[in-house]
Amino acid sequence: MKQFDFNGEFQELLLCGVLNDSKFGSLVLGSDILQPIYFDNLSGFFRILKDAFSKYSAIPSSDVLKRIIDQSSIGLAEKSKAKEIISNHHKKISDKNRQYIQEEVVSFIQYQKMKEAMHTAVVHLQKEEYNNLVDEISKAQQSVIYVEDSHREMNYFTEYESRLLSRADEPMEGLPTNIPELDRRLAGRGVCPGELAVVLGSSGRGKSHFLVKIGRAALFHRKKVLHITLEMNERRIAERYDQTFLSLTKDDLFTDLGFDKLRKFMTNEAKAFMHNMQESLIIKFWPMRSVTIHDIKRYIERKIRSGFFPDVVIIDYADVIRPDVVYGDNYTELGNIYYDLAGMASEFDTRIWTGSQTNREATKKEVVTISDFAESFKKVHPCHLILALCQTPKEKEKNFMRLFVAKNREGADEFAVKVKTQFETSTIRTLILDGEL
Fold first, then answer.
1. Which of 112, 139, 169 is the last residue of a domain?
2. Are residues 361 and 318 in the same domain?
3. Which residue of 11, 60, 233, 396 could cross-link 64, Cys pair, CB 3.0 to 4.6 Å?
4. Helix, strand, coil proportions of the chain in percent (round to 5)?
5. CA–CA distance, 129 with 349 (Å, rounded to integer)
6. Which helix (H) or strand (E) holds 430?
7. pLDDT digits (tens, 9 = 90+) for 257-303
8. Number of structural domains in the chain
9. Taking a C-beta distance cutoff of 8 angstroms, is the pair 15, 93 a contact?
């Protein structure tokens, strides 16, 4: 039998999924495919769940499960972990990892059922028992009646209690930019899971610097960041993060001062605000026009499979993604890329930030708006938030910039926030006073 290869985090989330979704729980516990041997440190807990399901044809309540665990012979450490999972299973699993885990387990069970059926079918074939052969394959195909639909649904009237529980435990989480005035004007909401945000600007205006700023803010709020770069390589982007964390110029990074500050930061300061520092920021490089949305999705699925669930995906930038389908029409191809990005944000229940170029006319404008998107206005429609980087020649001389909220699907828009830029250290400072301009 094929070994079911998954890590400890996957095992724990699988058990949370079993407790959180009765249909999925019935599939897992009612199948003879998944056995306690697959669970490294929770095999006793899984055996208790299977035995209880076999006895009651349902998953017992949390209180009953805890009593069964207390009376069991499993070790104290496993008892403690099992009761923690029972108490917090609805907090530990999100839409993005629930769907992945369920699809993986369903695929595994289907694979094993079909493999067993093929072995039996060979015997029927040798005996020329063709009807039995067809019946065996058909039974295997229908053995998994649970099908996870990627399009979520909700019964508004009957599921209000679960909605209230979810709202209390996991409120819609807008991720701040750490630009106080901008966050205040966005009503503290920021960009939420499942949403696409775009920073719009002309070439050289600072889109890549701003996206690093977003990544830095996410890290400070203990979020996991996947930063995909399609222009500069991964080492250059890592240097920009070094610059913004250490307030150093690029030249300073290559001095003894830069080496010492980075070592001190990584061994001391970084640990204070980063969750699981080793897996908080992944930087992935592809050459421009070499990767499609499909390629990016497969890569994210592989990272999720390894246990890295990105809270924020930064793509620098969407305009140089290769279209999955070539129409010979930039308007359609670029527009479809942005629709696919919005769909990907929803599918993985993550926040996606990307950048987009303005047209040439926008370089002469004091205020950049959604009408200034280069090549395809179709890019505007799927975006939840669009921030335009606006800067006159006079402002550029003084390192000032205005962040114009050109679109905000969930609140106020068409207002500007003034900031101070310092791109030599890849930083964008907080609000400045009107009189400074």
1. 169
2. yes
3. 60
4. 55, 15, 35
5. 49
6. strand 427-431
7. 999 999 999 888 777 656 555 678 999 999 999 999 999 998 998 88
8. 2
9. no
